[in-house]
């Protein structure tokens, strides 16, 4: 099934007629090791997910080295309390020279590989690698010049909406469309790390689809895969989750990231959830046809002679379904049989 809004990223098609597009976000879970980053890519390919995603920035392109309160996370932050932005991004960033080998390996394994750019120089780098798409991170949704620049490259745009108001989402989508690019997926997102499932508000997915006329997905930071499966049931065609080789010592985002078996489960079960959506119809399916034969109906359960009275002893509601409907017993009870009838015969009108 095709849809006029279907989007192609690499060899993968995104839309309601296709299995959910699962994006594995590496973020800083490479833990400063290119070898580990490449191992994550291999793990993603083995999992059945279709895409691996990076974040493309340098500490100096996203913040400045300052210890002032404006540049320090709140002490009460669950994961990174008290750290400066510079310190966090110094640890978490993916060195630019790693991008080429990561892209090369991912492409060789059949994965779509792309990234979130955080400034124009990042877009230049990603264009040099022939990125098949761009992802706008939640915090960058208000950077409309960045959105326009990325969209102007003519690649699919995946836009996260964590923290954003409906007017901010509208402005970002409009900025992308101003360039003539309508290949847009809007991701429902709660930009908290880790996110509380109760704050996911997934019922907003149909609202976003109606408001913007785009495909909708989910960028999820809750533990596990419950939220993504619920999102698929509500119409999400893209799911993004952070991934790690192991949560124990697995990197800066590892506490809310999926381990290999969990990512494989997400890839598998999201496809099952999508298949279960089916069509908006009620009634017996092709697979239920055999079951229809074994509904209950009225059967003669004792050998009877012509003239015998129909009673609860010689006619009962049993399986299969070739006789009169069970509710008709009150109509035939007390009538007489018109002919001899053998035990195991479906009761029909001509027999009474």
Automatic annotation (TrEMBL):
Annotated AFP-like domain residues: 297-352
GO molecular function: transferase activity
Class in the EC hierarchy, top level: transferase
Superkingdom of source: Bacteria
Gene3D superfamilies hit by this protein: Aldolase class I, Antifreeze-like/N-acetylneuraminic acid synthase C-terminal domain
One Pfam match: SAF
Keywords: Transferase
InterPro entries: AFP_Neu5c_C_sf (IPR036732), Aldolase_TIM (IPR013785), PseI-like (IPR051690), PseI/NeuA/B-like_N (IPR013132), Pseudaminic_synth_PseI (IPR020030), SAF (IPR013974), SAF_AFP_Neu5Ac (IPR006190), SAF_PseI/NeuA/NeuB (IPR057736)
Enzyme Commission designation: 2.5.1.97
Protein name according to UniProt: Pseudaminic acid synthase
Protein species of origin: Flexivirga alba
Gene: pseI
């Amino acid at each position: 099934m095709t849809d006029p809004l279907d989007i192609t990223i690499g060899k993968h098609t995104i839309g309601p007629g296709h299995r959910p597009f699962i994006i594995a976000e590496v973020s800083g879970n490479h833990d400063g090791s290119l070898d580990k980053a490449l191992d994550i890519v291999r793990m993603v390919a083995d999992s059945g997910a279709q895409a691996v995603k990076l974040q493309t920035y340098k500490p100096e392109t996203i913040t400045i080295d300052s210890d002032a309160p404006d540049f320090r996370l709140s002490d009460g932050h669950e994961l990174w309390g008290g750290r400066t932005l510079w310190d966090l991004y110094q640890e978490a960033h993916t060195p630019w020279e790693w991008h080429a080998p990561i892209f090369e390996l991912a492409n060789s394994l059949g994965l779509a590989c792309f990234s979130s750019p955080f400034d124009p120089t990042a877009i230049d780098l990603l264009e040099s690698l022939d990125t098949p798409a761009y992802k706008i991170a939640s915090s960058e949704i208000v950077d409309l010049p960045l959105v326009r620049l990325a969209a102007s490259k003519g690649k699919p745009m995946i836009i996260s909406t964590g923290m954003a108001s409906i007017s901010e989402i509208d402005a970002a989508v409009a900025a992308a469309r101003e360039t003539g690019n309508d290949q847009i997926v809007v991701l429902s997102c709660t930009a908290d790390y880790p996110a509380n499932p109760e704050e996911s508000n997934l019922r907003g997915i149909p609202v976003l689809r109606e408001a913007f006329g785009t495909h909708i997905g989910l960028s999820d930071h809750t533990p596990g895969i419950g939220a993504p499966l619920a999102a698929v049931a509500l119409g999400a065609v893209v799911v993004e989750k952070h991934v790690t080789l192991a949560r124990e010592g697995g990197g800066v985002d590892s506490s809310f990231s999926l381990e290999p078996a969990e990512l494989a489960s997400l890839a598998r079960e999201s496809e099952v959830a999508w298949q279960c959506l089916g069509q908006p119809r009620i009634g017996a399916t092709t697979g239920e046809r055999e079951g229809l034969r074994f509904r209950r109906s009225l059967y003669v359960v004792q050998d009877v002679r012509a003239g015998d009275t129909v009673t609860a002893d010689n006619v009962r509601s049993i399986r299969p379904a070739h006789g009169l409907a069970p509710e008709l017993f009150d109509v035939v009870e007390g009538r007489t049989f018109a002919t001899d009838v053998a035990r195991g015969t479906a009761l029909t009108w001509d027999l009474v």
